[in-house]
Amino acid sequence: MTYDPLSEQLLLDWFVTLDAPYGFRVELIEGELVLTPPPDGSHEHCLSEIARQMYTRSRTDMACSGNKGLALAAAESCPRDHMIPDGTLAPAALRPFRGAGPWMPCAGIAMVTDVTGAAPETDRRTRPRCYARGGIPFYLLVDREASSITLFSDADRDGYRERCTRPLGRSLPLPAPFAFDLDTAGFL
Predict the structure, then answer these.
(1) Rg of the chain over CA atoms, in angstroms?
(2) CA-to-CA distance for 47 and 122, rounded, in angstroms?
(3) What is the full DSSP assignment across the chain?
(4) pTM reported for the whole predicted model
(5) Which residue from 13, 157, 156 is spatially nearest to 79, judged by alpha carbons?
(6) How far apart are CA 187 and CA 66, in angstroms?
(7) If you placed Cys at 90, which of 51, 96, 112, 144 could pair as Cys (CB 3.0 to 4.6 Å)?
């Protein structure tokens, strides 16, 4: 298939006007439309634990947005990725979400986080590649199937070069700007 910028723009124009069913989210990931159903309570519990600790323990005061649309760099021969991580964190001093449109650029984002749900392989393989390509320094993944948590770091165009995985129940050290050990005992 040959790359066609006009078709890419038509796809993007159509995509940003989609009206997802209530509670669902629609993303454009490496040229594919992804429809994700509403999360269950355990999923939201993990996100709540992360947000609580970020607000109370992070060395840098963080702003946190749930389900914020991010416009990322494109994969080869694909339109720009439009992804909605479960959580998006940035230094509060930047006021990153104030006045942002539905699909904001990634400038200033310190970390995105996801909890595995309907498509765990996408969370484990595709999302890290896309977030790294977008220049997001850290990706935190709570993998409920594997009962683990992974911090992806050292982003480049091809993905994250470093990862640190711990079983749920053990602490995960988070580097600056967070600079605290994330307690995962409450995730179980």
Answers:
(1) 16
(2) 18
(3) ----HHHHHHHHHHHHT--PPTT-EEEEETTEEEEEPPP-HHHHHHHHHHHHHHHHH-SS-EEEEES-EEEEEEPTTSPEEEE--SEEEEEGGG-TTTT--SEE--TT--EEEEE--S-HHIIIIIHHHHHHHTT-SEEEEEETTTTEEEEEEEEETTEEEEEEEEETTS-EEE-TTT-EEEP-GGG-
(4) 0.92
(5) 13
(6) 18
(7) 96
Tell me: the pLDDT tens digits for 146-185? Answer: 999 999 999 998 899 999 999 999 999 999 999 999 999 9
Contacts of 100 (CB under 8 A, 6+ apart): 68
The answer to whether the CB of 152 falls within 8 A of the CB of 162 is yes
Report which residue type is found at 72. Answer: L
The residue ranges of every structural domain in the chain are 5-187
For residue 170 the two structure tokens come to 């053990």
CA distance to 27, 43, 137, 167, per residue, from 153 (Å)? 23, 23, 6, 18
- 5-187 has which fold? tt1808, chain A (3.90.1570)
